[in-house]
Amino acid sequence: MKLSVFTLCISSAAAFMASQPVGRDSIALQAERSQALPFLNRPALLDGSMAGDVGFDPLGLSGIDDVGVDLYWLREAEIKHCRVAMLAVAGILQVEIFGPAPGCEAATAKCQMDSFWQLWNSHPQYIAAGLIGITIIEMVSGIATTSGRETGVREPGDFGLDPLEFGKGDPARFQRLKAQEVANGRLAMWAAAGLLGQGCTTHEGGIENFMNALSDNAF
Length: 219
Fold this sequence. Notes:
Elements: H1 2-18, H2 20-31, H3 71-98, H4 112-122, H5 124-151, H6 171-202, H7 206-216
Helix pairs in contact: 3-6, 4-5
C-alpha cells in the first residue's frame, strides 16, 4: 500500500515536471499575439518595425499581395491620409474660428461643408484649381511610391521633406516623432470623419455643434 502511494506521488510529480515545456510554448505563443488585439495572432508582416505598428489588422489586409496592393502601398496610403486629415482638421477649425481666407469671403457658413458649396457657386475656378493641384501631387507621389516599391530604397511616406533636420539628430527621437505622426494622423482621420459627418447632418460648424451639445446636454 505504501509502495502504491509512493509510486502515485512520483508519477504526480513527474506529471508536473513534464508540463514545464508546455508553459514555455505557451509563453512563446503569447509573444506572437497582436499587441492591439491580444486575442488574435500577430500578422506575420506586422513585426513592429514600422512606426505606430501595434499589430492591428483584424481583416488581414497586410497579407494581401496578389491584387496590385501590398503592405508598402497600404502604408503609403495610411501616411498620406494621416497627413491630409491633420491638415483638413486644422483648416476646418481655423476657418470656423477666424473666418474665410482672403479671396474666399463668399464662404461665410460656419459649417465648412456648406461653405464649400458657397465657394463652388461663387468661384468654381478655385475648386478646379484645387483639383488640378491634387492631381499633380498624386502623380508625383504615385511615381515615388511605384519606384519605392520596386527598389525597396524609399521608406513609405518619405519625400525627403525635413526642413528642421529631425532625421539628422537622435535616431530614437526621430523614431518617436514618426510614431507620433502616425498616432496623431489616425486620430485626425477620425476627427475629420466626425466633422464631415456632423457638418452634413446638422449644417453646423464643429465647434458650434460642440457648444450647442454642451448647452443642450445632448449627450
